[in-house]
């Protein structure tokens, strides 16, 4: 089974996954390669419903492998995905409060996320609040990442 990292954008899913396993799989990268375009462009052209179907297919394929997996922040939106994740263990939710995440996202010049750039802080906070119980529902482990260095988090998982 896959070791899955869940959480809102900026929580450190890819950072922790990569430190845990250099050969980790970034689900967004797999989806982008499969689509042949960015997720944002696909959303624009085909819509969210179509994207979520592809996301569920990719998630099902990846969960059957013995890998470390960094998911997209919205993977828990789909009920189908939550059902897939409920059958998997471990699902590690990297938890952080909204203000800390917002600050991280504001300071991240390297990884400019379209969802962050195109929405108000209030809209992002609503999105965070909607997703929070979904992350918690499928998590088999919750780690509060605020105040912890990536190495400390990896140590907690080893």
Automatic annotation (TrEMBL):
Primary location class: cytoplasm
Q: Which pathway does it operate in?
A: Metabolic intermediate biosynthesis; chorismate biosynthesis; chorismate from D-erythrose 4-phosphate and phosphoenolpyruvate: step 5/7
| Lineage start | Bacteria, Bacillati, Bacillota, Bacilli, Lactobacillales
What does it catalyze?
shikimate + ATP = 3-phosphoshikimate + ADP + H(+)
Q: Which GO terms describe its molecular function?
A: ATP binding; magnesium ion binding; shikimate kinase activity
The record's EC number reads 2.7.1.71
Q: Where does substrate bind?
A: 28, 52, 73, 131
Quick check: keyword Kinase in the entry?
yes
Task: Tell whether Nucleotide-binding is among the UniProt keywords.
Answer: yes
Question: Which residues constitute the signal peptide according to the record?
Answer: none
User: One GO term of the cellular component aspect?
Assistant: cytosol
Name under which the protein is recorded:
Shikimate kinase
UniProt cofactor(s): Mg(2+)
Entry keyword set? Amino-acid biosynthesis, Aromatic amino acid biosynthesis, ATP-binding, Cytoplasm, Kinase, Magnesium, Metal-binding, Nucleotide-binding, Transferase
PROSITE patterns membership? SHIKIMATE_KINASE
Question: Where found in the cell?
Answer: Cytoplasm
Domain of life of the source: Bacteria
Question: Tell me, what does this protein do in biology?
Answer: Catalyzes the specific phosphorylation of the 3-hydroxyl group of shikimic acid using ATP as a cosubstrate.
* Cofactor note as given: Binds 1 Mg(2+) ion per subunit.
The entry's Mg(2+)-binding residues are: 14
The similarity annotation says: Belongs to the shikimate kinase family.
Q: Which InterPro entries match?
A: P-loop_NTPase (IPR027417), Shikimate/glucono_kinase (IPR031322), Shikimate_kinase/TSH1 (IPR000623), Shikimate_kinase_CS (IPR023000)
Organism (species):
Streptococcus merionis
List the Gene3D superfamilies: P-loop containing nucleotide triphosphate hydrolases
> In Gene Ontology terms, what is a biological process of this protein?
aromatic amino acid family biosynthetic process
Which sites bind ATP? Answer: 10-15, 113
Q: How does it assemble?
A: Monomer.
């Amino acid at each position: 089974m896959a070791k899955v990292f869940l959480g809102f954008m900026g929580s450190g899913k890819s950072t922790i996954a990569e430190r845990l396993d250099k050969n980790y799989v970034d689900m967004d990268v797999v989806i982008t390669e499969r689509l042949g375009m960015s997720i944002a462009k696909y959303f624009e052209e085909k819509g969210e419903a179509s994207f979520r179907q592809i996301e569920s297919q990719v998630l099902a394929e990846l969960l059957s492998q013995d890998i470390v997996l960094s998911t997209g922040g919205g993977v828990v939106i789909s009920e189908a995905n939550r059902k897939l994740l409920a059958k998997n263990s471990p699902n590690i939710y990297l938890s952080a409060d909204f203000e800390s995440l917002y600050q991280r996202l504001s300071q991240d010049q390297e990884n400019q996320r379209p969802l962050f750039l195109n929405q108000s802080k209030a809209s992002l906070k609503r999105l965070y609040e909607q997703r929070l119980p979904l992350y918690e529902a499928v998590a088999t482990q919750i780690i509060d990442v605020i105040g912890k260095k990536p190495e400390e988090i990896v140590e907690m998982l080893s």
